[in-house]
Amino acid sequence: MDYSIDDMNAGDWEQVRSIYLEGIATGVATFETDAPAWEKWDAGHLRKARLVARDVGGARGVILGWAALSRVSDRCVYGGVAEVSVYVGERGRGRGVGRALLDALVEASERNGIWTLQAGVFPENAASVKLHLRCGFREVGRRERIGKLNGVWRDTLLLERRSRNVGTS
Description:
Helix content is 27%, strand content 34%. By secondary structure, it is an alpha+beta fold. The protein has a domain at 3-116: Gcn5-related N-acetyltransferase (GNAT) (Aminopeptidase, 3-Layer(aba) Sandwich). It has a 7-stranded mixed β-sheet with strand order 1-2-3-4-5-7-6. A hairpin with a 7-residue loop joins β2 (50-55) and β3. The protein starts with a strand and ends in a 7-residue tail after the last strand.
């Protein structure tokens, strides 16, 4: 492995934002149409599990991808449920970066008491669907016309992973 998985910090934001913008440009990664400022992104994501894949080879220190969790609800009953975001930049594709990030994010979530992870993925994003399924997620269902992106109604697949270690008793 020519990259390491590390905790994300504020100083990583410009590279993380750039990868986020790459994902937005594909039209199959998110309903967002622009990456927010650090302060807004920071406020919307849990501090317990924010990860980056850093190149340790030729492009030392370059961030290849990132993963983070966000709340699904402020209600206390959903305190152990989080939504997953995983983005891999062009430089990191085909190198196992997405799998390494998602596996590490699952581990970090469980260390922090998260019992259910969910992801909303556009059905057209076959690579993301395949990645989540390989990492223990299951398809719960298809949410038809759940939102509009650039004026067009889009479906998402709801994928979920239930921990075998947290919240079992």
